[in-house]
Amino acid sequence: MSTQTTDPLIGENLARLRGEISQKTLAKEMSDRGFKWASSTVFNIEHGERSLRLVEALELAKLLKVELSDFFDIPADVGPARKVQDLYLEVARHWTVVKDSVSSLLEARGRLQSAVNDCLSRAPESDRPNTLRRAADFGQGQLDSATVDSAVTRGHTDYSASPGWKRINADTSEG
């Protein structure tokens, strides 16, 4: 799990575990133990806006007379939904990488095409086949236009036809 999903979970558990102890009292107790805490610190942790450091969690566990693992408990009714949320965020992150990669590939392909056209336009007409062959040999013939076009078309078709593509695309372009 990432801090994006664990911080709110730890915060919810801290709020539950402190029970009747006020945020102000908890902050004072932690301050008395050498931590620079205020009631706003407790509030921020409980709302997932600040991470709880391990050394703080160890001291809180002693103070609240709970196990360290209690801060990481996932309520049974929230577990599956949280897992779906985590996986959705993971897919969205990967989709962003794919979109950026395809975009970079298309830009590089355009620059390659321009360079090939420029190279051919500068070569004497009688030497153009040899010029193109030398350029392809330099690239070890790994990329030909048909291979690039096929991969881009197939990738675009596969991904743009997938059910969640538009929603993931919209979600990742907003943030």
Short account of what is shown:
With 175 residues, the protein is an all-alpha fold. Helix 2 packs across helix 3, helix 5 runs antiparallel to helix 6 and helix 5 runs antiparallel to helix 7. The protein is rod-shaped.
- How many discrete structural domains? 2
How many helical elements? 8
Radius of gyration: 28 Å
Average of per-residue pLDDT values: 76
Q: Unreliable stretches, pLDDT < 50, 5 or more residues?
A: 155-169
Terminal residue distance: 20 Å
InterPro entries: Cro/C1-type_HTH (IPR001387), Lambda_DNA-bd_dom_sf (IPR010982)
GO molecular function, one term: DNA binding
Domain HTH cro/C1-type: 40-71
Region (Disordered): 155-175
Description:
It comes from Rothia koreensis. The chain is an all-alpha fold. The protein folds into 2 domains: 3-72, lambda repressor-like DNA-binding domains (434 Repressor (Amino-terminal Domain)); 79-174. The protein is 72% helix and 0% strand. It has 8 helices and no strands. It has helices spanning 3-18, 23-32, 39-46, 54-64, 79-122, 128-138, 145-160, 165-174. Helix 5 crosses helix 8. The two termini are 20 Å apart. The relative contact order is 0.09. The model is unreliable at 155-169 (pLDDT under 50).
